[in-house]
Write a structure and sequence with these properties.
single chain, alpha/beta, 7-stranded parallel beta sheet
Length: about 350
């Protein structure tokens, strides 16, 4: 039986990975690590382990107990502003050389799967491919790229490595309701939809009355018009991970260096993402044909990154070409609108309970 160690299992992606692997027909032995907060609602049979990614002694202890054949490394400081605030801490956690060294020393034939990011790119080139030269412009991207390079050196020595560069991860809400971009979107748009609905009720005496954007007072929310990404459904990521673990020789098909891009089929700005959310929420909340696109989108304040005066450098276009990954697993990735519909249904149900 394959033994899999998932780091960062108390995080959003990590817990989805654990659940996906636990539901596999091959049913590997799964060890889920956490730093300070144990993951909640782990599947039956999964072993939770405390591990400090930056501490060699903690890593060695986990390795000796779990004896993994595979590592899925999800643990990270993933907030760019936090990485800028403490670059030394970000480097220690996002580029854990000791973790790779300990793993390959214990399991020389094992597989190391690393969750990287689209922010290894500088944002100057649209639809980057795995062969596009990374040029990170912030500490988050730089620390992730540093660990990519470290693992690529192991790959050159014949070790099994899979580097998965993920775009903005989207999906259903977790039971712990940790904040995600979709949760933020749904919260904002639901308030706006309520305002539209209230106006509709007030004008219901006139069957021809439509909701007027000028009379709906929704708070404007700023979204970037010039930041592009390819949001990826969390289920698509976990499917790729499970496939790499379960399918012999799948890593070899990734090429050299062993990098896959995991981004959805849609290249979208934050403004376009907000519009899709408005479509989904309003379609589910309001009677058909009762508001125009102008009404639905009236809460959106379109701004550029330069206008926002961000305190951290953020790449503008980090859209990615994920055709290789989809070809390897023989499965198309999910459009954002479809993810939004499923996620909103889950989100709205949980908040009604």
């Amino acid at each position: 039986m394959v033994r899999v160690l998932v780091t960062g299992a108390s995080g959003y992606l990590g817990l989805f990975v654990v659940e996906k692997l636990a539901s596999s027909p091959t049913s590997p032995s799964i060890f889920a690590t956490f730093n300070s907060h144990p993951p909640s609602h782990l599947p039956v049979g999964v072993t939770a382990m405390q591990m400090e990614v930056k501490e060699g002694a903690s890593i060695e202890k986990c390795m000796s107990e779990a004896k993994p054949d595979v590592i899925v490394h999800c643990a990270a400081i993933a907030q760019p502003f936090r990485c800028e605030q403490d670059k030394e801490e970000a480097s220690a956690i996002n580029c854990p050389a000791k973790l790779a060294d300990s793993f390959f020393s214990l399991s020389p034939n094992g597989l190391f799967i690393f969750i990287s990011t689209d922010q290894v790119f500088g944002g100057e080139e649209s639809m980057s491919t795995p062969s596009t030269l990374p040029q990170p412009i912030n500490s988050y991207g730089a620390t992730k790229r540093a660990f990519e390079e470290y693992l690529i050196e192991y790959s050159k020595k014949g070790k099994k490595v899979a580097i998965l560069r993920c775009s903005l991860i989207i999906g259903e809400e977790r039971v712990d309701r940790k904040p995600t971009f979709l949760n933020f979107l749904f919260s904002v748009v639901s308030k706006h939809a309520s305002a539209l609905k209230n106006r509709l009720v007030h004008s219901s005496h006139n069957e021809a009355a439509a909701v007027s954007a000028s009379t709906v007072e929704s708070e404007k929310v700023s979204f970037f018009s010039d930041q592009y990404r390819c949001p990826i459904y969390v289920d698509d990521i976990t499917h790729v991970i499970a496939y790499l673990i379960e399918t012999a020789n799948s890593v070899e098909s990734m090429g050299d260096p062993p990098i896959l891009h995991l981004g959805g089929p849609d290249r979208l700005s934050r403004v376009e993402m907000a519009k899709i959310a408005a479509d989904v929420v309003c379609d589910a909340s309001l009677p058909p044909h009762t508001c125009t696109d102008e009404d639905k989108y009236s809460f959106i304040q379109s701004i550029t990154q330069d206008e926002a005066n961000l305190n951290v450098s953020t790449p503008k276009d980090i859209s990615m070409d994920s055709s290789l990954a989809q070809a390897i697993v023989n499965r198309p990735f999910t459009p954002m609108r479809d993810v939004m519909r499923a996620a909103y249904s889950s989100w709205s149900s949980s908040w009604r309970e």
